[in-house]
Specification:
With about 550 residues, this protein is an all-alpha fold. Helices cover about 60% and strands about 5% of the residues. It folds into 3 domains: about 45-185 and about 205-250 and about 260-295, no CATH class; about 320-415, Serine Threonine Protein Phosphatase 5, Tetratricopeptide repeat, CATH 1.25.40; about 425-544, Serine Threonine Protein Phosphatase 5, Tetratricopeptide repeat. The protein has 28 helices and 3 strands. It has a 3-stranded mixed beta sheet, sandwiched between helices. The radius of gyration is 23 Å and the shape is globular.
């Protein structure tokens, strides 16, 4: 197999939806709370370890977080887009570079839902709903939310809650982590699904408020988060500004027969006191810039090229604007509705470049490739040079059948950005649609260049499987299909595929060794799932 194999997983278990519902109910009775121990005056809080660390090793925590992400993928709740995945990771990793734990592992990912929400769970897995990004007006505001959620991880808030529960309740609490994460992400038409509602209903939110987000922990996450935000080069005011915007969104949603409060505000209450405290902390950092940004605030554990100085401010607003519109186009329930949103924006005046880009993405999503190319052509000359616009234009050219122009555009992008996962994945997807051996071989070569970095990405494994199929390497194709199944929450199906592949008489020594090794690493996961009484995740699954 090419790329990572998720070998760090140590058989964590996420129960079926009906068991999750039971876990939620049982956990309500445990009354797990976090005492407000920490002084509100300390802005230099260290990362908090505790005896909870003994309950779950870092490897086990990463395993539970990874399995939760697989479950979310299985339910088609995540947004698997190469450009957006790379972008959200880049924003998060700016914050990680400013953290006191440079070796800590974090994984940031996007959810499809337009509810305003974000969450953190074990192993540094942090999810952000599309709706929260659509509400933000600049990257600094998104970074403020990510900094807050990152602080929940660095301060061991989930582990400290688990520590207070009895050890014999640990399986229930760990199963509940998956339910909590899912409960924060679903709204709208999804609520009509009765099974989904059992997992994601009011009880889940009640548990989230009771366990994860006491006022003391929220204040602590704000304090540590603003420190991360500022040291990463973002505005210290961004967190308070976004708090106010979320509060205004809550007020705007009130009316009619009921009030609709964004889920994030149910689990992260925003009050005037909290906003005022955030503003005061921002003023403190402004007056102490040497600590916040620059030599005085640098992390001595980080290498020199990762340090932040007063001259290295991140100027990424254009990326944010394009990312937000890509999210708008891909998170709408249909491509038609997405295009309609942009047409409505156009009624108020000429569309800015980012909105035109979003409309083109929506048109590509709806297979209207000529219209997408026409929309992209209306972007300003400066905007035409943005890499996201170039990549989307190359994609539209390829999907429209203009292979020569598309290949020239993609090859130019690869020359400039040889290690870009979005470029490689998009190019490979365009190539494999041609369904000929030459294009399959080129897609293989393009994808091999990113295999080491992208092996844990189901989008990569799916594209690599298709490229190998077309190129005639059915063994590699089978391995990649199994990896894609595993990464999307179907470990039993993945294991069955590998056993079928192993039975082929034409395997060479190296292929058999790869397959045997992967079977050995997947088998404990599947056996534990069987011991719990189910195959893969048979809970609710959204239409794709």
């Amino acid at each position: 197999m090419l790329g990572g194999q998720s070998s760090h997983l140590q058989v964590p278990v996420l129960f079926r939806s009906r068991v999750l519902a039971t876990a939620i109910t049982l956990t309500l009775a445990t009354g797990v709370l976090l005492p407000d121990r920490l002084s509100a005056q300390d802005s230099r809080l260290p990362s908090m370890g505790s005896s909870a660390d003994a309950l779950l090793s870092p490897t086990q925590q990463a395993g539970y977080g990874a399995m939760m992400l697989m479950q979310l993928r299985h339910m088609n709740l995540t947004m698997e887009d190469p450009l957006l995945n790379e972008w959200i990771q880049s924003v998060g990793h700016k914050l990680v570079a400013a953290n006191n734990q440079p070796d800590a592992s974090f994984h940031y990912f996007l959810m499809r839902e337009r509810e305003i929400n974000a969450f953190a769970t074990l192993g540094g897995y942090i999810g952000v709903n599309s709706g929260l990004i659509l509400l933000a007006e600049k990257e600094d505001e998104l970074a403020g939310v990510l900094a807050h959620e990152t602080a929940h991880v660095t301060q061991a808030h989930v582990l400290r809650a688990v520590e207070q529960a009895k050890r014999d309740q640990l399986p229930i609490l760990l199963a509940m982590l998956g339910a909590i994460a899912v409960s924060q992400t679903v709204g709208g038409s999804s609520a009509a699904n009765g099974t989904m509602a059992a997992v994601m209903g009011a009880q889940g939110l009640m548990v989230q408020r009771q366990i994860n987000y006491t006022r003391g922990r929220e204040a602590e996450a704000d304090r540590v988060g603003i420190r991360l935000l500022t040291r990463a080069g973002y505005s210290a005011d961004a967190m308070a500004t976004f708090f106010e915007r979320m509060q205004n969104a809550m007020r705007a949603n009130r009316g009619g027969d009921r009030e609709e409060t964004p889920d994030y505000l149910l689990t992260h209450p925003v009050t005037q006191v909290r906003i005022a405290e955030a503003k005061e902390r921002a003023r403190t950092f402004h007056s102490n810039a040497g600590f916040a940004v620059g030599t005085g605030g640098n992390n001595p554990l980080l290498p020199g090229n990762m340090q932040v100085t007063s001259s290295t401010r991140f100027t990424t607003q254009s990326n944010f604007d394009f990312a937000r519109e890509r999210i708008r186009a891909l998170s709408a329930s249909t491509s038609t509705l997405a295009v309609r949103e942009y047409l409505d924006y156009g009624k108020a005046g000429d569309l800015p470049d980012s909105k035109r880009y979003g409309m083109a993405v929506a048109q590509i999503r709806g297979a209207h490739y000529a219209e997408a190319l026409s929309t992209l052509a209306k972007i300003s000359p400066a905007g035409q040079q943005h890499p996201w616009v170039e990549l989307t234009r190359a994609e539209a050219l390829g999907l429209s059948g203009n292979a020569a122009a598309a290949d020239a555009a993609f090859e130019s992008l690869l020359t400039r950005m040889p290690n870009s996962q979005p470029v490689a994945l998009t190019y490979a997807q365009v190539l494999t649609r041609r369904n000929n051996k030459t294009s399959g071989a080129r897609a293989q070569a393009v994808l091999r260049n990113i295999a080491a970095a992208a092996g844990d990405d189901p989008t990569f494994q799916t594209a690599y499987a298709r490229a190998n199929e077309i190129a005639g390497d059915t063994v590699r194709a089978g391995e990649a299909h199994a990896e894609a199944a595993y990464l999307t929450g179907n470990p039993e199906a993945a294991l069955m595929q590998l056993h079928t592949l192993k039975a082929r008489p034409d395997l060479d020594y190296y292929a058999r060794a790869r397959i045997d090794a992967r079977i050995a690493s997947m088998t404990p996961v599947v056996l534990e799932l069987r011991r719990q009484g189910f195959k893969d995740w048979d809970g609710p699954q959204r239409d794709r």
